[in-house]
Specification:
Keywords: Calcium, Carbohydrate metabolism, Chloride, Disulfide bond, Glycosidase, Hydrolase, Metal-binding, Signal. The chain is built from 9 helices and 24 strands. With about 500 residues, the chain is α/β, with parallel strands linked by helices. The strands form 8 sheets. Strands 1-2-3-8-9-10-11-12 form an 8-stranded parallel barrel, surrounded by 6 helices. A 4-stranded antiparallel beta sheet has the order 15-16-17-24, with helices on one face. Strands 4-7 form a two-stranded antiparallel sheet. α2 runs parallel beside α3 and α8 packs parallel to α9. It starts with a helix and ends in a 5-residue tail after the last strand. The protein binds 2-acetamido-2-deoxy-beta-D-glucopyranose (3 copies). The site of one 2-acetamido-2-deoxy-beta-D-glucopyranose has 5 residues, from loops.
């Protein structure tokens, strides 16, 4: 009986904060703008075999079709209905993806856009991904249906109807964000409609939701529709499992709204994480890696068990959203790999890895005028499939950071060291740092302008380990650097500051 109550208490206290990943899988990857058919294949051929826990997908519901500029990525953040039909695929393809990914233990997390519909200037007609009629001017979305009563136009107090001042929490929640028609989530009809949409996805088998623009909804309104959500589908999840909820709240400090207001609903995106880590790894503002010794709450971040963390996301990798110029992305691969390596080795937060498409960046006066560009597409606007090259990288303009050896191997590192303490920190008071995770793994960085040559306590059992950054373990040998851990746990590390990747990581599953 006692054990039973303890289990119940444990479940209740994890609930919507639990990522619902299969045991031993500790990260998810955002396959930004991928087609459902490609995601299904990627779950089977790559994500499951390499220990990834899940995929954050782009919004699956019908959205406006924008042709000027040509099919921007952000059109998917302008819903027209909750029909499952988008550039990523049809409802049947969506169901097939969720089923096949779940069947190999990789779960699907839906980007839910429920704060708003399309922009107020979206016009009238059937220029939507399923051809549903709508009229933005009269607030008419019959395919949901929503009508003028279901929007916040009357509640917003600004003259323009737009958010004009982020220091006014009422404006941020009740007015239009960049002209997007703001749903009246105080109405039970709107709450129920949103919950029905999400419950349909739960029935199909999704494991949770990223909730877009959460900062622009009242936490209490969100709680009202989240309380209506079902438990997850028992074909794949234990009875009584709640959906994982992570809310997009951009809080870098200094505004009316803070991330902590949303902790009751689920986890929250910690935007300070990537902004600060980018600053440190770029060595801007006098920052150095030695300062990362108390990374996490010690840096003023939210508590680890509430945080969803990432180095970059689909917004701030192209200058949208928050974070500014310090954000590291695939465009700076050497520093980016170090940042991802640090994130995946460090115990703080639940980690999400970005997987991007390439676009033609064009900076004019410091701003990328092509920041709107959508995914690789054909002339009819359909999204190109993800092709796989013989060397396992991706083609057709897809970057596939999650397939980079260093990143994939660090995702595995995180699985191996899961639950282990943060131990054996070392630094040279500059940009050479090292730390371990109990007796399971150890990582060393050299982000200084001179070589590192040091004997360090790893905490690992004696033996020969394969560095998983310069290579990996293959059969009974290492394809990259070998590290000898002595009987006392110490090992000698040498990292040239000009190495392709100036860091070394070892773990017990890559021991010869
Ligand atoms: C759960 O998923 C299975 C398999 O796809 C499906 O047959 C079943 O109807 C789903 N359950 C609910 C409640 O929708
Ligand atoms: C740093 O290490 C590299 C590779 O081992 C070596 O070629 C280089 O001479 C070293 N630089 C210094 C300043 O010792
Ligand atoms: C081992 C090593 O390279 N240590 C260097 C760390 O940085 C200081 C300067 O802060 C150097 O003097 C050390 O040589």
């Amino acid at each position: 009986m006692k054990i039973f109550f303890l289990l119940v208490a444990f479940e209740l206290c994890w609930a919507q904060y639990n990522p619902n990943t299969k045991s031993g899988r500790t990260s998810i990857v955002h396959l930004f703008e991928w087609r459902w058919a490609d995601i299904a294949l990627e779950c089977e051929r790559y994500l499951a075999p390499n220990g990834y826990g899940g995929v954050q997908i782009s919004p699956p519901n019908e959205n406006i079709v924008i042709t000027n500029p040509w099919r921007p990525w952000w059109e998917r953040y302008q819903p027209i209905s909750y029909k499952l039909c988008s550039r990523s695929g049809s409802e049947n393809e969506f169901i097939d993806m969720v089923t096949r990914c779940n069947n190999v233990g990789v779960h699907i997390y839906v980007d839910a856009v429920v704060n708003h519909m399309c922009g107020s200037g979206g016009g009238e007609g059937t220029h939507s991904t399923c051809g549903s009629y709508f009229n933005a001017g009269t607030r008419d979305f019959p395919a949901v249906p929503y009508s003028a009563w279901d929007f916040n136009d009357g509640k917003c107090k600004t003259y323009s109807g737009e958010i004009e001042n982020y220091n006014d929490a009422y404006q941020v929640r009740d007015c239009r964000l960049v002209s997007l028609l703001d749903l009246a989530l105080e109405k039970d009809y709107v709450r129920s409609t949103v919950a029905n949409f999400m419950n349909r996805l739960i029935d199909i088998g999704v494991a949770g939701f990223r909730i877009d623009a959460s900062k622009h909804m009242w936490p209490g309104d969100m709680k009202a529709f989240l309380d209506k959500l079902k438990n997850l589908n028992t074909s794949w999840f234990p009875e009584g499992t709640k959906p994982f909820i992570f809310q997009e709240v951009i809080d870098l400090g200094g505004e009316a709204i803070s991330a902590s207001e949303y902790f009751g609903n689920g986890r929250v995106t910690e935007f300070k994480y990537g902004a600060k880590l980018g600053t440190v790894i770029r060595r801007w503002n006098g920052e150095k890696m030695a300062y990362l010794k108390n990374w996490g709450e010690g840096w003023g971040f939210m508590s680890s068990d509430r945080a969803l963390v990432f180095v970059d996301n689909h917004d701030n990798q192209r200058g949208h959203g928050a974070g500014g110029a310090s954000i590291l992305t695939f465009w700076d691969p050497r520093l980016y790999k170090m940042a991802i390596g640090f994130m995946l080795a460090h115990p703080y937060g639940f980690t999400r890895i970005m997987s991007s498409f390439r676009w033609s960046r064009n900076f004019v006066d410091g701003k990328d005028v092509n920041d709107w560009m959508g995914p690789p597409s054909n002339s009819d606007g359909s999204t190109k499939s993800v092709t796989i090259n013989p060397d396992t990288t991706c083609g057709n303009g897809w970057v596939c950071e999650h397939r980079w050896r260093q990143i994939r191997n660090m995702a595995i590192f995180r699985n191996v060291v899961d639950g282990q303490a943060f131990t054996n920190w070392w630094d040279n008071n500059s940009n050479q740092v090292a730390f371990g995770r109990g007796n399971k793994g150890f990582i060393v960085f050299n982000n200084d302008d001179w070589n590192l040559s040091e004997t360090l306590q790893t905490g690992l059992p004696a033996g020969t380990y394969c560095d998983i950054i310069s290579g990996e373990k293959e059969g009974n040998s290492c394809t990259g650097i070998r590290i000898e851990v002595q009987g006392d746990g110490k090992a000698y590390f040498q990292i040239s500051n000009t190495a392709e990747d100036p860091f070394v990581a070892i773990h017990v599953n890559a021991k010869l």
